[in-house]
Design brief:
Length: about 140
């Protein structure tokens, strides 16, 4: 088993989540927009948290935002990530009006701060899976 295989990757995805992962693989961000109330959903869900409607349309959003909160991971959840510690996981308030979670790369963890402008970046961990990450805007 390779190091990539040991890292956390989604398994047995429900059909309604596949467009999210397909978009990441294409280096795009796509989220669900509720057909009833218009609110955005991330992480993809079967029902809208606001109005409980099941109908949604996949919508591409821009990748910019600012760090809302974050943590520095010193002890990784699996051995496959330990060599990369310390690293930053952040909740990012996206310009589109929702929050997304991802690793912040290309910055020293001690330089990360709430309000830091970041943009989406993508980690192609295999030919099938791409993970959302963020990097500082330049």
């Amino acid at each position: 088993m390779s190091e990539t295989d040991e890292k956390f990757l989604p398994e047995d995805l429900p059909n309604w989540q596949i467009p999210y992962w397909d978009a990441l693989r294409d280096h795009r961000l796509a989220v669900q927009r509720c057909n009833e109330c218009g609110s955005l959903r991330n992480v993809p869900k079967e029902l809208c948290a606001h109005c409980h409607s099941a109908g949604a349309t996949w919508t591409e959003i821009p990748g910019g935002g600012e760090i809302y909160t974050y943590t520095v991971v010193h002890r990784a959840p699996t051995p496959a990530y330990q060599a990369e510690a310390p690293y930053v996981l952040a909740h990012v308030a996206m310009d589109a009006g929702i929050r997304m979670i991802g690793r912040v790369r290309d910055i020293d963890p001690e330089e990360v701060r709430i309000g830091l402008r970041v943009k989406a970046s993508y980690d192609d961990v295999s030919s099938l899976w791409t993970l959302l990450q963020f990097e500082p805007e330049t």
